[in-house]
Amino acid sequence: xxxxxxxxxxxxxxxxxxxxxxxxxxxxxxxxxxxxxxxxxxxxxxxxxxxxxxxxxxxxxxxxxxxxxxxxxxxxxxxxxxxxxxxxxxxxxxxxxxxxxxxxxxxxxxxxxxxxxxxxxxxxxxxxxxxxxxxxxxxxxxxxxxxxxxxxxxxxxxxxxxxxxxxxxxxxxxxxxxxxxxxxxxxxxxxxxxxxxxxxxxxxxxxxxxxxxxxxxxxxxxxxxxxxxxxxxxxxxxxxxxxxxxxxxxxxxxxxxxxxxxxxxxxxxxxxxxxxxxxxxxxxxxxxxxxxxxxxxxxxxxxxxxxxxxxxxxxxxxxxxxxxxxxxxxxxxxxxxxxxxxxxxxxxxxxxxxxxxxxxxxxxxxxxxxxxxxxxxxxxxxxxxxxxxxxxxxxxxxxxxxxxxxxxxxxxxxxxxxxxxxxxxxxxxxxxxxxxxxxxxxxxxxxxxxxxxxxxxxxxxxxxxxxxxxxxxxxxxxxx
Length: 480
Ligand SMILES: Cc1cc2nc3c(=O)[nH]c(=O)nc-3n(C[C@H](O)[C@H](O)[C@H](O)COP(=O)(O)OP(=O)(O)OC[C@H]3O[C@@H](n4cnc5c(N)ncnc54)[C@H](O)[C@@H]3O)c2cc1C
Prior knowledge:
Blueprint: H1 6-12, E1 19-21, E2 24-25, H2 36-48, H3 54-58, E3 59-62, E4 65-68, H4 77-93, H5 102-114, H6 116-119, H7 125-141, E5 145-148, E6 172-176, E7 181-191, E8 198-201, E9 217-222, E10 228-232, E11 254-263, E12 269-272, H8 275-284, H9 287-316, H10 323-348, E13 351-352, E14 358-359, H11 362-387, H12 397-401, H13 405-411, H14 419-433, H15 436-447, H16 452-462, H17 465-476
Parallel strand pairs: 1-10, 5-8
Antiparallel strand pairs: 1-2, 3-4, 6-7, 7-11, 8-9, 9-12, 10-11, 13-14
Helix pairs in contact: 1-2, 4-9, 5-7, 5-9, 9-10, 9-11, 9-14, 10-11, 11-14, 14-15
Bound molecules: flavin-adenine dinucleotide.
């Protein structure tokens, strides 16, 4: 057992998994044009665990073995900060563009497995032990996990069991064997699944009602498990590092997971027919606080990238000293500062649970998550406004290297850069703003942790109304 290298990781993906893309199955996900670039980027992240000085930031010794810090439950504020420093290494190496770098799910699984008291409730004790064992195994093998929490979007006005009418679509238990339960149905989103070692299926996507026990099952399976198929969306990978500096590298694939009479080995079942556990697992394990720390660290890098690109655009047009562009850039800086302040406050006010895990403070993490997704969206909007037609009126690398190279260098030059450099800046801007890749990044930041409308509504529900009432009374009853 040891830390994964990039080569180990790529080798493990060649396991005969059933991945559909463009109407055909993919024989080898590491060599498919649409999947290969992200696989290579993740392999490069793993390699950073073996090189100094990043090795020291990304890994730590645990029970005599070196392992990823993301697979270790922080027991103190110092360990929490050390974990974030590791998050930052991978975020910078992937420019914040890989939302599902393996530290995300390692952090999530670690949070789940640590709260044994919660998962051991009622009849679930043996399954809770499965979860602890699975976490230990994933940590020791340094696995790259994908997850699917989201159920089908067949009819959102109906319950989970009502999805699909006479032919149910939601994932459910349809039988039991000595080796394990049989499941059938679908999950609507599993990012990175074609490029992960295993798929973690948790919760039912929405609260289950009494009578819906068949829909309550959480488990993990390797991606080559018989009965599991992945249906990929259209790839957003584009060719060429100059033409598409981001889309040529970071398209982490999203897909639907279809389960057709898949037998889940009993030792890989973590929750079984338990509506309470199903409903409360995120709050009970402080899922949002833990993964939120990783998200904020990564998102800060992503916002910096949008800011750096917008700044280069403004420089190129000679408007770096003009009021309006400086105001727009200053707004992004402010949002970035708020994002980083939330992250620091969450670490400074961290608390320790009954089960000995140090957790980032809830309020600053949640506020930071809500605000920073909007900061990223407005940074991209600012980039679009500042770039305008320059976004698409750019030559390609073929033009830059063709017979018109000198003409391009002259006519496309900007106030502070030659035509070639300026073209490269605007191609980067286009990947963030105009490409399908950039649109998906925006959607990802907005939705990957659930519906933001409900998140804001929850913030209002949890707001201290008594305090507001007192302030209002003071205002209304103030001195004449
Ligand atoms: C790029 C991307 C990657 C993702 N990766 C993963 C992943 O790896 N694993 C995973 O589990 N999930 C993933 N998510 C899915 C994420 O969990 C869902 O997008 C999220 O839960 C929101 O669900 P939805 O997309 O169906 O939108 P909805 O929640 O349906 O929201 C769409 C709109 O409908 C409105 N709406 C929905 N229901 C109601 C209602 N009852 N009443 C009133 N209005 C309503 C919402 O407010 C919103 O405006 C990913 C999402 C994206 C975009």
